[in-house]
Design brief:
This protein is mainly beta and 189 residues long. The protein contains no helices and 16 strands.
Length: 189
C-alpha cells in the first residue's frame, strides 16, 4: 500500500481491476478545500491513457512489475516467440501485447514486462530507437530537396516509414519506434 505522497512517474498501481503506471502527476493545494493529486495513468494491458484525481492522503495498492531482457526469435500462427536473455527459456506472446510489432526483426533486443506476483507477461517494449535497412524505396529526383518532402520506404522488418527524398535503397536509418518515424541516416562505421 502507498499513499498519494508516494506518487512518482513510473509507479505501478492496481486501479479499477487493471494495472496502470503513472505517466505524470501534480499535487494541487487550492486556497479553499482539501488538497488533491491530478494524475495521468496509462494502462499496462491496453495502453489507454486516462486522467484521474485522487484526494490527498488516499491509500492505493501498488503492483510490482519487472522488466526482463529478451530477444525476438520468430513469428508464426501461435504468436511472437522470444527467448529470455538470461535463462534462455522461450516464450510466446500475442501481437496485442507488443508496442510496435512491425519493427521487430530477427535477433531484436526487447524488454518484456512481467507482473512480479503472477509471472504473467503484460507487455513487450522495443527500444525507442532502432536501426533498420531500407529494402525498397523509389529513387529520389535531383532538385526535389527545397522542401521537406518525403517518400515511403520499406524496412527489412517489413514496416513502412516516410523518409526524406535523399535516402536510397540499401542505406541504414534510425527509426523512432514510439512515433513510428524516421530520425536520421546511420553513418557507416
Amino acid at each position: 500500500m502507498a499513499t498519494t505522497a508516494d506518487f512518482r512517474n513510473g509507479l505501478c498501481l492496481e486501479y479499477n481491476n487493471d494495472l496502470y503506471t503513472i505517466v505524470e502527476f501534480q499535487h494541487v493545494k487550492p486556497g479553499k478545500g482539501s488538497a488533491f493529486v491530478r494524475t495521468k495513468l496509462k494502462s499496462i494491458t491496453s495502453g489507454k491513457v486516462l486522467e484521474n484525481t485522487f484526494n490527498a492522503g488516499v491509500k492505493v495498492t501498488t503492483a510490482r512489475i519487472e522488466r526482463r531482457p529478451h530477444q525476438f526469435l520468430f513469428k508464426d500462427d501461435l504468436g511472437y516467440h522470444f527467448m529470455d536473455s538470461s535463462t534462455f527459456e522461450q516464450l510466446s506472446i500475442e501481437e496485442r501485447l507488443i508496442d510496435s510489432p512491425q519493427f521487430l526483426s530477427d535477433g531484436q533486443a526487447v524488454d518484456i514486462i512481467y507482473h512480479a506476483e503472477t509471472e504473467k507477461p503484460l507487455s513487450c517494449e522495443l527500444p525507442q530507437f532502432i536501426e533498420a535497412e531500407i529494402t525498397y524505396t523509389e529513387p529520389g529526383i535531383k532538385g526535389d530537396t527545397a522542401t521537406n518532402a518525403t517518400k515511403p520506404a520499406t524496412l527489412n522488418s517489413g514496416a513502412e516509414v516516410q523518409v526524406p527524398l535523399f535516402i536510397n535503397e540499401g542505406e541504414r536509418i534510425k527509426v523512432d519506434t514510439q512515433k513510428k518515424a524516421y530520425v536520421e541516416r546511420v553513418k557507416n562505421k
